[in-house]
Design a protein that fits this description.
With 408 residues, the chain is α+β, with helices and mostly antiparallel strands. It has 14 helices and five strands. Strands 3-2-1-4-5 form a five-stranded mixed beta sheet, sandwiched between helices.
């Protein structure tokens, strides 16, 4: 239940500002600016760049991106260095194909947030570096400028990666939205896959929302006397809300995060199919297009592409089913949220409102303390899953590199 809680939103903005992440579309990289840069080779990766022209976060935007960035150091590099590293790794793992591959197969798409002079300058710099890297690697390819996300798209991204409400985000401009996104990226740097990050964002939103309502319940209880019944009624609604949160988070984990889920098992098969596809694509590119072996290899490549497409379709279908399965629990959660809101509107009298105002600073401190400690708790609870994800990504990356070396 994303909602305003006292000065929580203001406190978060202050925290973000303290981290010197305050805008992404000024004419020059003035103190505190941050710029969003994406590089898409499929792998797709997002970089956040600070006012010192330094990468402060790197986030995989798809599973191939997770394979590419695992085990690499992007943080602290310049955008040009990060792009060079990404293109080089993409070549090492076969996402960029050497040999007789068509130029269109080796497309590097780059976007830079904003249309300022600074953004234009940065775009030219990373574009130049990407082209130079392709040339140095003797890869026939080209670099394209991709359209960066607009303000509304950034707002939707911020909504899904923060505990801000739609109302709060609606009042933010592009630079403030970049603040929120950058802070979320830094916070979840150790969560390498989108599924794990989504589980984290959802769990955090639920935990903070429950904590806010729990603080309210404590205040009502402290009034005692005639407010005992009011507290009992509110606490009963809060317990239902807590159960709805637990049920939804557990189902999300079971369907989308657990290594034992059909969804994650299908991801393993998808990665295996991708390894075979890239291996065959790179092998085919080493052959003489006029030779007999090229014809046979091309047919094998077609089969590999079909197998990959089937694996991708199965993976996406299981993800769709999982999200559909969660809809009923999401509905229960929303109903519980509405019940709490209705009770607050109905039972909060002047005495309760006065006590809430009196305890505002204390309540805010309690919620912020929980917010600050949440990642550590989540990491501890999912330590085995995080390690398993890292190991699986490293294994696939090693397989891709080995298959490319075989064709060298």
């Amino acid at each position: 239940m994303k909602r305003k809680f006292l000065c929580l939103a203001l406190a978060m903005l202050t925290l973000v500002s303290a981290l010197a992440l305050t805008s992404c579309n000024k004419a020059t990289p003035e103190e505190g600016t941050v710029t969003r840069v994406t590089v898409d080779i499929n792998p797709s990766v997002e970089f956040m760049v600070d006012d010192q022209n330094t990468i402060v976060s790197v986030t995989a935007l798809n599973d191939d991106g997770s394979i590419l960035i695992i085990g690499e150091t992007f943080i602290g590099k310049t955008p040009e260095e990060a792009v060079e590293l990404m293109v080089s790794i993409a070549a090492e793992t076969g996402y960029l194909v050497e040999g007789n591959a068509q130029t269109t197969e080796n497309t590097v798409k780059i976007s830079v947030s904003g249309d300022s002079k600074y953004a234009q300058k940065l775009m030219k710099a990373v574009e130049k570096k990407a082209n130079a890297t392709l040339k140095a690697l003797d890869i026939q390819g080209h670099v394209e400028k991709a359209e960066a996300l607009g303000t509304e798209a950034l707002r939707q991204m911020a909504l899904s990666t923060s505990i801000y409400t739609e109302e709060e985000l609606a009042a933010m401009d592009e630079k403030q939205l970049c603040n929120v996104i950058a802070q979320g990226r830094i916070e979840t740097a150790l969560l390498l896959t989108e599924d794990m990050r989504n589980a984290y964002y959802a769990a955090k939103e639920h935990k903070i929302s429950f904590a806010e309502s729990e603080e309210v319940a404590k205040v009502i209880k402290s009034l005692g006397g005639i407010y005992a019944l009011t507290h009992s009624t509110y606490k009963a609604a809060l317990d239902l809300y807590s159960k709805a949160i637990t049920d939804l988070d557990e189902l999300r984990y079971k369907l989308l995060v657990s290594p034992e889920s059909d969804y994650q098992k299908s991801l393993v098969k998808l990665r295996e199919a991708k390894v075979e596809l890239l291996k065959q694509k790179n092998y085919t590119a080493t052959l003489d297009v006029n030779g007999e072996e090229y014809v046979s290899a091309t047919l094998t490549l077609q089969i590999s592409e079909e197998n990959y497409d089937k694996a991708l379709k199965a993976y996406e279908e299981l993800g769709k089913r999982a999200n559909e399965a969660m809809e009923s629990l999401i509905s229960v959660l929303r109903q519980s949220e509405e019940k709490l809101k209705e009770l607050e509107a109905k039972i909060f009298d002047d005495n309760i409102e006065e006590k809430l105002a009196e305890k505002a600073v204390e309540m805010e401190a309690n919620v912020n303390a929980l917010k600050d400690s949440f990642f550590a708790e989540f990491e501890a609870a999912h330590a085995d899953d995080i390690t398993a994800i890292e190991n699986a990504l490293l294994e696939k990356k090693a397989q891709l590199k080995a298959s490319i070396e075989e064709n060298a």
